[in-house]
Amino acid sequence: STARNQTNGAASPAAELDALIIGAGFAGLYQLHTLRDRLGLKARVLEAGDGVGGTWYWNRYPGARCDSESYYYSYSFSEELQQEWSWSERYPEHGEIRRYLDHVAAKFDLKRDIQFGTRVSSAEYDAAANLWRVRTEAGESFSARYLITAVGCLSSANIPKIAGLESFAGQWYHTGRWPQEDVDFTGKRVGLIGTGSTGIQATPVIAEKATHLTVFQRTANYSIPARNGPVGAEELREIKANYAAIREKARATINGHPFDIAPESALDVAEEERLARYEKAWETGGLRFRAAFRDLLTSKAANDTASEFIRAKIRGIVRDPKVAEMLTPKDHPFATKRPPIDSHYFETFNRDNVTLVDIKATPIVEITPAGIRTTAGEIPLDIIVFATGFDAMTGPLLAMDIRGRDGVALRDAWAAGPRSYLGLQVAGFPNLFTITGPGSPSVLTNMPVAIEQHVDWITGCIDHMRQHGLQRIEPEPEAAERWVAHVNEAANATLLPLANSSWYLGANVPGKPRVFMPYAGGMANYARLCAEVAAKDYQGFVLG
Ligand code: N01
Fold first, then answer.
1. Does the complex come out with an ipTM higher than 0.95?
2. Ligand 1 pocket check: which of 177, 197, 375, 445 to mutate, most ligand atoms within 8 Å of Cβ?
3. How far is the CA of 532 from the centre of ligand 1 (A)?
């Protein structure tokens, strides 16, 4: 790529870097900026895509927009940046987020140190040289003191192995690997598999274009109306005037969202008051529905009231009672799987050109040249959309062959599930940092908050090492074991493990170990722990 040729010094492929960063999404861009521009390191990013954006580079499916609100789904590290950028909608669409990240890359002159179109295939720690030796699929090699993964948590597509897919005569797509050009659904019979956040965003948009849309649902899902709309000029002024307070609040909460969680239990108030609160939260829309009461994720009885409220809404919206019943979630409490938000999802099933197929009742048998055959018969299709999610958190890390000391493969070290200290480092893998890795709050939060905290911590750690002439950092195995136990304990203090088909547990990928991967102890609490560890001379880490 042209970026490669513009890079000073690093142009020779085996060039030795201080830091090599994998991925040019929110995490990789900011990490490059801090290491290069604040610490003065020789740093470089390798990125598989042909542009910046990470998640937002690949997820261009119809209806793809962020479920966090635009004004706080953004970087906080530059006051100038947050003042000069203006979001157009309450929930930014994928293209707008890419434009934002392109603007960031231009503003901080990042692209000259990003090599696009470059997928890392392996990375091996060379103990004698204390360097990471990194190879790309194209056969290039790099060496770096620090290896930092910024590969995202939801970037390894989960495409179910359904017999006959290769025989399908039409087109098929996974939402997380959407083509760069638009897909035209006009005049097409479309089948969509999957009703997670992605399927729920895509369904109403595809239904408007397609001749017919068939949604294949395995698990009915709760969803809250997003209530998207333009951001008015006055609102924008107010946000910009209050940014310091908004950011501070986001960092002080459990989920990195800058809104208050009600102090009451759902069981503290009379039924009438409770319903009025849910009604108001439903009208306001978005992920803040969860904040209507403080205990929706810790008390099953409290959660039942919210789950039942949403079920009643679904039955009220969907006109055909049989379809309404199929769409009503019953097998897990609200928000124990990542709750989707939507724009007219349930309403879409009132359209004449939309059919819902319950594939628990009538499972998919195979894909044929003409469509999808379930136990109830064949449904002819021109396009199949897989909204079937991701091999989350560990998938993108294990897709590369990462080997630590003595050639130990990360795949083997994590055979029974991921084991990290603070989600930041793995024992036996010196100088490897995993931004938003398993064992960190990441996917349970508003991602940019988690990302900035990790990048700042890693930058501070590397700065500390350089100041003190230290060459190596890795966790004590006991510290990692304690952290893994704590991650489990934190999950078990919530209702989250009750959703036994959740990707948080790896349950969506056949054969994947069932381990609750993200840290559910809360973002603010986690950030405090990380800061304490650093202040106590990196307690639990071995430095040398
Ligand atoms: O993936 P999912 P997603 N046969 O894993 C079904 C983030 N996100 O892409 O529930 C048939 O949630 C599966 O069924 P089941 C967000 O964190 C953010 O929707 O396993 N069906 C489920 O219905 C989100 O949680 C945003 O029974 C199969 C669906 O496919 C995460 O990404 C937008 C199947 C997968 O749901 C992932 O969301 C979108 C099979 N073999 C996503 N395998 C924004 O903020 C799976 N399914 C914008």
1. yes
2. 197
3. 35
